[in-house]
Amino acid sequence: MKFFVDTADVDAIRELNDLGMVDGVTTNPSLILKAGRDITEVTREICAMVDGPVSAEVVAEKAEDMIREGKILAQIADNIAVKVPLTWDGLKACRALSQDGHMVNVTLCFSPAQAILAAKAGATFISPFIGRLDDIHLDGVDLIADIREIYDNYGYETQILAASIRSVNHIIEVGKIGTDVITAPPGVIKSMANHVLTDKGLEQFNKDWAKTGQKIG
Ligand code: E4P
């Protein structure tokens, strides 16, 4: 399973990247706002640090404007994946940008039908948003399963990038289904290390060790 980090926080990316946990990064306008940085500057810094794809999102609504913005974003670095929304215009932009040799991440996907269109338009990645479906009492994990089945039926090469991940459980569930990539906030990735029995076991080992009166080294 490839891990993308869903943030524009350079320090958080560096911490995970240094541990070999980062296969790519996803950003969006809200994450750029949260980082409080200039989009070009922060994206360039992330691209230099990370080997894999770094998604940078267009903000225009018309295909021709998305294509223009996408080409500008793609100039930041070779590992930019241009992120376009799953609208009809976004699909047009996906087609044009992918034919131009750019990686394209089609975002804001909420249905298998949308995911089929993105694959046919040449998307490198499709980003189904799990958490936002759960928020409206639909099953986001089911969407990943549906897309996996359909893509496998027809051999589509578009990679499923499970997005809007809110919990460790989401990561495990989409991993069992066979998502190609997950993108999650740094805090969710770090919390994968937590287990109550690990804490309890460590506490006991520390107590017993103190009773031995020994030291290592
Ligand atoms: C994905 O590329 C998006 O940036 C992200 O996963 C959205 O997550 P959210 O629904 O938690 O904002």
From TrEMBL:
It is found in: Cytoplasm. Its main location: cytoplasm. InterPro entries: TAL/FSA, Transaldolase_3B, Transaldolase_3B/F6P_aldolase, Transaldolase_AS, TSA/FSA_arc/bac. Pathway: Carbohydrate degradation; pentose phosphate pathway; D-glyceraldehyde 3-phosphate and beta-D-fructose 6-phosphate from D-ribose 5-phosphate and D-xylulose 5-phosphate (non-oxidative stage): step 2/3. Its EC number is 2.2.1.2. It holds the Pfam family TAL_FSA. It comes from the Bacteria. Transaldolase is important for the balance of metabolites in the pentose-phosphate pathway. NCBIfam families: fsa_talC_mipB. This is Probable transaldolase. It comes from Paracoccus marinaquae.
